[in-house]
Amino acid sequence: MNRRALLTAGVLLFAGCTNRPDGDETAETPDTTTTAPPSASDRTTDVAEDILIRVTNNTSGTRTVHLTVNRDGETHVEKSVTLDADASSYVDPEITETGDYELAIETDAGRTHRRPFDVEDYDLGMGSNLIVVADTDSIRVLMEE
Questions:
Q1: Quick one: CA dihedral 49, 143, 63, 87, positive or negative?
Q2: 122: buried, middle or exposed (CB in 10 Å: 19+, 13-18, 0-12)?
Q3: For 83-118, what is each residue's pLDDT tens digit?
Q4: Domains of the chain
């Protein structure tokens, strides 16, 4: 039997196997250091998916990250999050309208970074998120669509 056929047979053999062997279908919640995204139940706007900022502390110590979202030169929202080493959390920037925005990030270690971004109808419908990673010597910002 060749490797490709063996791999295909293995995938098919285990496809759909999601139940526990003892028949108990209750899911166990894994212990993680990532804070779940906030609920949209309090929103009164017609946004399909929330746009969130996931902040990750990629250092060996506790880090506070200050976030400022600006729109049209005005401060839209300011929030701070304090994270343990290698922890992540979600921050809701309360974006409900299309437009040009800027995310300003500052850590308690004195690092700063600015990232302009635009929000279009697609982003409001799909909940495109920003990802902020605070490293020891830099801040990285990515956009997830």
A1: positive
A2: exposed
A3: 999 999 999 999 999 999 999 999 999 999 999 999
A4: 53-144 (2.60.40.180)
Classify 30 as helix, strand or coil. Answer: coil
Nearby residues of 103 by Cβ (< 8 Å), 6 or more positions away: 53, 67, 68, 69, 70, 93, 114, 115, 116, 117, 130, 132, 141
Cα–Cα distances in angstroms (integers) from residue 81 to residues 64, 116, 145, in the given order: 6, 21, 23
- The length of the chain in residues reads 145
Contact 145, 123 (CB under 8 A): yes
For residue 49, give both structure tokens: 């998916």
pLDDT, one tens digit per residue, over 2-39 is: 444 444 444 444 444 444 444 444 444 434 455 555 54
Residue with tokens 């990532």: 34
